[in-house]
């Protein structure tokens, strides 16, 4: 592989304008497809194989007259303190709002709360439901403005009027988290390279890759039902790895120039060596993300594949567009200060200050002096950070977790105040009758049983489909939708009451509703975590054995990952569930951790963690293969790559942190914080500290591989040993600079 990538790098360097033109053409071609797309669609929380989904599918089949995909909004009214909505002035104000709501775009029906009994017992709070003739994702700015104007009409009359639903939420706003990440990345790259051109190259190529990936997602959004959140997460990951992959190749290119090679030869060698590491690092990320498909939850599968596609594009950009860009910038890949060392070629004699070891070398030597102490302290520190995981509560965000000043949150609170906390998460019982089943009698029996059940505050009258073969009825718990008691109630209904009712009535009884679906979602995530972790870690473990030709190095990498991801999850629990320092990143409401958070973090962080493992340890193995003893190879690896790994980690952290701080979406904010914390811990505590400590303690044993396994394994040659043989056979040593003619743009 290294030889193939070497040839590819040289080809793209020589034909740089053609390579750039191909990427520009691809960008415009995909952009044309994106422009013709109808746009993203909402998140699909379908849960195949669960009771909730079975009931939803059954209702869609048996109640064809109900448009399951239609959009609803809820508007709630509250009278001034001490007054009732049924009084003259207040009643008139409510009717005026209802009349204005009926004139809105795409409005089908607006229920009168006084006619259908949607009024609290003290008549101070009432609500109406608006049915829109659109599907989720089709709400417009005009519809949102019309709804807000109607609310203001009621407010001007002295009422409290709030709304919830997609139309009330309005269009999702891009908070610009990627801009913060790019700014910080630019600063870090300038400090790392000392050159604006060298700093701008990874940013530019990464942005091109992200634009290609995001336009591809937009173009396919309608066909594949890719949501806006899916695109945001794909952009977050694609931007982070795109900058990192380009950074590693640019850094290696500069090192090869300093080693005495021509520009074209340096580009080929950088692509053959660092590019090999990029390929395998990218493969680990892609495996981890695509592996989310085994969870069998559509939204996670789409997120995983979309992000994996962006990573694949980032790898291709690094292997083709980056070498082409290197040919375009020429001498300016070094800063002016370094170019002065050798004005004729523009290549300095060294990237380090004469007679002084760089920070990576000093850090490695410090760790190797007390490896056991460093190892123990690091493990204990990560273990302490992981403690909050033991009390993690999982669920899905709802309007109850929105900031208190939002109309969605105030609607939630008003409905809880007027009708009880369970009103925001009603349970739906479906009764599917067959031959000889008296469904009317069955529904009455179920209603009577529910009315006397502890934990049920009230029930609503049953609804029957047109042919009378299926009925649904609502039961309102006494506790909120995310309360643990509600989960216990759902399990009791399914495990104990439903079988009893089925034997009494002959009807099939299922329990569903959004609260039950959220409970099912959390259970699916919990059940899938261990199989997913086994699959992803197992496949990546095999891949890393091929890369490092070692058993203990991949094992150490996997165990280090588990420590970092548990510590990062602990930090997420401390901030988003316990509320520690939550205000610093704009978290206004604490609550359960999103059900998909642990499994998504496992997938993403495992891939990103292996990035740094591959980049750092392949340099150690390269030095070891070329004759250095184990400890010296560790120092050499840190001397050459530690600064670049640290810069890459800071860039990735800044990208994730930008989304965490600026996003208003709870899922994006939590993902950004969790991923940023995980990269921070994995890069600086695990890879930069634990790795040299463990490698120092293992010594030569770190590279142990059974002879029988060594014989049957293919040699992927990430360290470039076969490339060295190829170069020597073709006379491409350091003296290649003596004769190779440089293109005009390089000189």
Description:
Helix 1 crosses helix 12 and helix 11 packs antiparallel against helix 12. The chain is α+β, with helices and mostly antiparallel strands. The two termini are 30 Å apart. The strands form three sheets. Strands 6, 7, 8, 9 and 10 form a five-stranded antiparallel beta sheet that branches. The chain is elongated, with a radius of gyration of 30 Å.
What would you say about this model in short?
The chain is about 65% helix and about 10% strand. The chain is an alpha+beta fold and about 750 residues long.
| Main sheet summary | 5 strands, antiparallel
Query: Could you say which overall geometry the principal axes of the C-alpha atoms support?
Result: elongated
In terms of DSSP E residues, the strand content is 5-15%
In DSSP terms (H or I, runs of 4 or more residues), the helix count works out at 25
Structural class comes to: alpha+beta
Low-confidence stretches: 737-747
Number of strands: 11
Task: Kindly provide the radius of gyration, computed on alpha-carbon positions and rounded to a whole number of angstroms.
Answer: 30 Å
Quaternary organisation = single chain
The overall average pLDDT, rounded, is 85
Task: Note the gap between the termini.
Answer: 30 Å
The helix content, as a percent range, equals 55-70%
């Amino acid at each position: 592989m290294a030889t193939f990538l070497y040839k590819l790098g040289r080809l793209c360097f020589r034909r740089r304008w053609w390579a750039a033109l191909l990427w520009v053409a691809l960008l415009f071609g995909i952009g044309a497809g994106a422009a013709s797309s109808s746009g993203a669609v909402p998140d699909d929380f379908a849960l195949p194989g669960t009771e909730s989904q079975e009931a939803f599918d059954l209702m869609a089949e048996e109640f064809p007259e109900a448009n399951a995909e239609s959009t609803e909004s809820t508007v709630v009214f509250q009278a001034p303190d001490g007054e009732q909505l049924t009084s003259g002035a207040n009643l008139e104000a409510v009717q005026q709002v209802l009349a204005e709501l009926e004139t809105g775009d795409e409005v089908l029906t607006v229920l009168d709360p006084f006619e259908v009994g949607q009024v609290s017992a003290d008549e101070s709070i009432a609500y109406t439901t608006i049915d829109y003739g659109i599907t989720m994702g089709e709400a417009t700015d005009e519809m949102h403005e019309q709804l807000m104007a109607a609310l203001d009409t009621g407010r001007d009359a002295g009422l409290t009027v709030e709304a919830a639903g997609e139309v009330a939420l309005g269009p999702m706003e891009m908070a610009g988290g990627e801009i913060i990440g790019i700014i910080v990345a630019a600063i870090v790259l300038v400090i790392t390279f000392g050159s604006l051109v060298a700093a701008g190259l990874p940013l530019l190529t990464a942005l091109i890759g992200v634009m290609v990936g995001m336009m591809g997602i937009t173009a396919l959004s309608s066909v594949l039902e890719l949501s806006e959140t899916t695109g945001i997460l794909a952009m977050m990951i694609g931007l982070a790895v795109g900058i990192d992959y380009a950074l590693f190749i640019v850094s290696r290119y500069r090192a090869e120039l300093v080693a005495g090679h021509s520009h074209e030869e340096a580009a080929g060698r950088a692509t053959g060596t660092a590019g090999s590491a990029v390929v395998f690092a990218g493969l680990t990320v892609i495996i981890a993300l695509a592996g989310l498909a085994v969870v069998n939850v559509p939204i996670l599968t789409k997120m995983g594949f979309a992000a994996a596609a962006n990573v694949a594009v980032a790898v291709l950009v690094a292997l083709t567009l980056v070498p082409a860009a290197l040919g375009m910038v020429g001498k300016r890949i070094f800063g002016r200060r370094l170019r002065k060392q050798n004005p004729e070629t523009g290549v300095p004699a060294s990237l380090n200050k004469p007679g002084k070891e760089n920070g990576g070398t000093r850090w490695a030597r410090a760790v190797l002096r007390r490896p056991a102490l460093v190892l123990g302290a690091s493990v204990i520190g990560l273990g302490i950070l992981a403690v909050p995981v033991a009390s993690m509560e999982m669920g899905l965000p709802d309007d109850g977790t929105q900031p208190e000043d939002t109309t969605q949150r105030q609607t939630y609170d008003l409905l809880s105040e007027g009708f009880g906390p369970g009103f925001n998460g009603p349970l739906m019982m479906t009764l599917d009758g067959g031959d000889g089943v008296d469904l009317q009698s069955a529904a009455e029996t179920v209603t009577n049983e529910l009315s006397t059940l502890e934990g049920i505050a009230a029930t609503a009258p049953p609804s029957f489909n047109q042919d009378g073969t299926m009925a649904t009825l609502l039961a309102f718990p006494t506790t909120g939708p995310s309360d643990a008691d509600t989960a216990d109630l759902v399990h009791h209904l399914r495990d104990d009451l439903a079988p009893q009712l089925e034997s009494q009535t002959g009807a099939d009884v299922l329990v569903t509703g959004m609260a039950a679906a959220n409970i099912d979602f959390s259970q699916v995530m919990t059940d899938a975590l261990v199989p997913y972790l086994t699959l992803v870690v197992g496949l990546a473990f095999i891949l890393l054995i091929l890369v490092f030709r070692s058993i203990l190095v991949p094992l150490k990498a996997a165990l280090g990952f588990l420590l970092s991801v548990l510590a990062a999850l602990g930090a997420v629990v401390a901030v988003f569930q316990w509320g520690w320092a939550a205000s610093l990143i704009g978290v206004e409401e604490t609550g359960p951790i999103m059900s998909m958070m642990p499994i998504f973090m496992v997938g993403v962080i495992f891939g990103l963690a292996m990035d740094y493992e591959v980049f750092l340890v392949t340099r150690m193995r390269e030095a070891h293969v070329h004759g250095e003893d184990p400890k010296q190879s560790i120092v050499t690896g840190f001397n050459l790559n530690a600064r670049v790994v640290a810069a890459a980690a800071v860039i990735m952290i800044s990208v994730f942190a930008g989304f965490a701080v600026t996003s208003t979406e709870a899922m994006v904010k939590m993902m950004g914080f969790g991923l940023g914390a995980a990269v921070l811990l994995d890069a600086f505590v695990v890879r930069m500290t634990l790795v040299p400590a463990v490698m120092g303690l293992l010594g030569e044993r770190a590279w142990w591989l059974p002879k029988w396994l060594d014989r049957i394994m293919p040699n992927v040659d990430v360290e470039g040993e076969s490339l060295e043989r190829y170069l020597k056979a073709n006379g491409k040593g350091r003296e290649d600079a003596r004769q190779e003619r440089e293109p005009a743009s390089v000189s």
